[in-house]
Write a structure and sequence with these properties.
By secondary structure, this protein is mainly α. The chain has 9 helices and 2 strands, in the order αααββαααααα.
Length: 215
Amino acid sequence: MAVRRRKLSNPLALAVMVLLMEKSMHPYEIAQTLRRRGKDSSTKINYGSLYTVVQNLEKHGLVEVAEVQRQGNRPERTLYGITEAGREEATEWLSDLLAVPAREYPIFETALSLVGVLHPDDVTRLLEERLSRLEVQVASARGALEKLYETLPRLFLVETEYQAHMVEAQAEWVRGLLRELNDGSLPGVEAWRTFHETGETPPEFQDLEDRHIEQ
């Protein structure tokens, strides 16, 4: 089962609709509320794109102008509320995202797919640097979580927990790859090294590419 194609694909649109289920808000208030609740750690938020997202949601009938406030000489403030179609869209979209794993393309995976162009010794050094930074991130995330647990129900911290677990998992995987690089047990590492030291493509690499083309 695949995630359904949506009228809008920006995750910020979903965050906006979910927030407007609570009450009508001005776009600036939406941004401030998302940041205050720490949602900027899981959803990219900036004012320019937020206004565009709200306009697109209105265009598709998912939100609507709920009120225009006027206070003295201050500029008008337009408050937006969610429509019934918006409630339905947000509920279905969130349900799909929770239930159906989607293929994502993290930039680290891209780098790993191209890693052969670097010498294995350089890759080892760079991964050691990455691991050091990941370990700092893990310690920082765990420390922040312990503080947040004191004031917030865990329900509101599950995405932060997930982020911490993903960083820990990545650190553990990098640690394992580094062990294999350092002790020479990674299959193909010697051919990889030979390629960089001689400039010649090892026969086993050419065989693999030929088989890939045939498939």
